[in-house]
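Quick look at the format.
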Amino acid sequence: MEKKFNKNNILLLISKKGNIKYFVSFFLIIAAYFSYVFIKGPILIVFLIIAMLGILLLFNIPSKWVEDSFSKISYRFKISSAIAGGFFLAIASSAPEFFTATSGVLYYNIFSIGFATLIWSAIFNLCVIIGVVTFIKNPILVRKSILLRDMPFLGITIFTLLILALDGVYSTSDFIILISVYLIYLSFLYFDKSKPYNITKTDYSRREVILKLFFGMILIALLAHSMVSIGQETIELFEQFYGYTLPIGVLACTIYGPGTSIADLFMSVAAIRKGNYTAAILNGISSNTFDLTICIGIPGLAYTFLTGNEILINLNSSLLIISMLLLSFILVYFTLRDGRVTKRKGTVLLVYFFSCMIIYLIQIF
């Protein structure tokens, strides 16, 4: 008997497990594409921004593929939870930021796209992710062990980034120092006596893992490059229509930085709902060390190698956002010090983040 069409089945597919946000993302990107073809004038800028927002939502799909693959690799080879979380899963959560920075360097020869994006992503991770989850579970009790390993290395990383910026340039040796900081952190993770990484579902195939990892990384790279390309087009149109060069920092502060961390936010929210409270908080912390060392260091090395020049940075704006990041680190440290994260503390972090955005935008304009 032929099965009749039932529109309720379609609605169920769209709404199942939050899939509606992906349908919305595709709709936004398609709408923006048609507007770019048929619409001329300043309104086009709005549609390009809509397209970037759609791309940011789609990051969550390949990020889950990569995270799932690395989880299974860690389980298969009995890798410790410390290495799995601090290295393999950090790669999965930081891939959008890494490819955004790489696209800016290799295709547009602009280091500041990735640099500003990664700093704002780190501030978002610390303040917004931790702040938002307190509205889902209040209070959140976390293990104080976070303060003994992950937080100190993040603090060292931020201080290193700040000190290296004081002379107004980033050189090849500076990027090597940043990468070395992460390698030292990784060595501490290696000697951590944590249990082997475990997963709930153990039936998987090697082919599935490889395909998910390969296509996940490829899709993240394409999405990141598309976002950066649309962003550069937005800057050009803004100058064409309004005669003003829109600072890259505006996009990094409002779209690139927060947007590339949306997948991390979804992960933390899911962890809170499953009762994994420490994991939800740690997710807003652990990937930042990888972001600020590897994701800045490798594209930075690529830039200095390709151009043969040191990278001149805007000292005022760079020191401002690094200082904001340092202060957010201090706030989070005191938030976690007693092992109890309340909604009031989360609200302080959220207010701080949006205050930083306002101050930064005023300063660069």
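Next, a different chain entirely:
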Amino acid sequence: MYNCHKEITKFHDDEVNLNLSQQDSMRNKRNANRKKLENGLRENASPKYVKVKSQGSYAMRTMVQAPNNDYDIDDGVYFKRSDLVGSGGADKAALAVRQMVCDAVQDSSLKKTPHVRKHCVRVEYNDGTHIDIPAYRLDDNEENPELASTDWVRSDAQDVTEWFKDQRRYSADGDQLLRLARLVKAFARSRESWKGSILGGFGITVLVCECYSSYSGRDDAALYYTLQKMCNRLRVTLQIEHPVTLGTFIADYDDSKAKKFRDELCDKFEYLAPLLNDNCDDEDAAKCWNKFFDTDFFGGGKKYASGGSAVRKAGGTGGYA
């Protein structure tokens, strides 16, 4: 296979992984929102939270650059169940707790008012970034978290973060696995027309972990053979089991978003076939990767997703916490 490791690495570092300026911006928003939540709860005479913990792709470090700052930060807030009681002494309903959190983070400087959603409270910033705040209750030992959803549900996204850490820890190359998760997520975001109709980032991360084909010193080859395994796997079944909540599924046999991802991946994977030819050269290889990621980054050209020159490139594994 034609060696494009340096080019894929540069693409990842420059156009896929978040640069330090973007990381700083999101971290500052997250910290400011936590302070606003803390102050708002106190001013409203609401219970204090026990802790707040980053979750999702932000915590797993699999976030990728996005046009229009379309970033989603998940930041869970945890309370003691014994503190969440109504005026009659009964447990607060899940909706009431979400509303309590929503009331605490109101901000008149935002164009959109923070609002209650099915599983969280959403705070949308004027630049396009949004923070989702799921609320949890803990027992007196600060264990056994339950999510304030349509009702109280046993759940904790921190388990997913720990699962991914374990995937990296016990894989052949945890840093390469992380980079591949970002690159495949970037592919799924590469066409604007796919937005909202293709498999989400968590499902993609699970598939990458399941199909990861390590290749020492060659991210391009590792990506190629991982994509090949993902395509073959999805042709057998679209079902993706949740790695933590046993018996539940991210996608089932007839999931339309998983089908969309399979169809587009298997179709666009064919663009990479010339990389295996003995007579492949730099120009041919650049065309392959440009067509796959729908960019003209390889061989020079425009930026892929960030919409401008990145400042203080992060590179490496990055970190957002």
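The beta strands are 51-55, 72-80, 115-116, 121-124, 130-133, 135-138, 146-148, 152-154, 240-241, 249-251.

See the schema section for token definitions.
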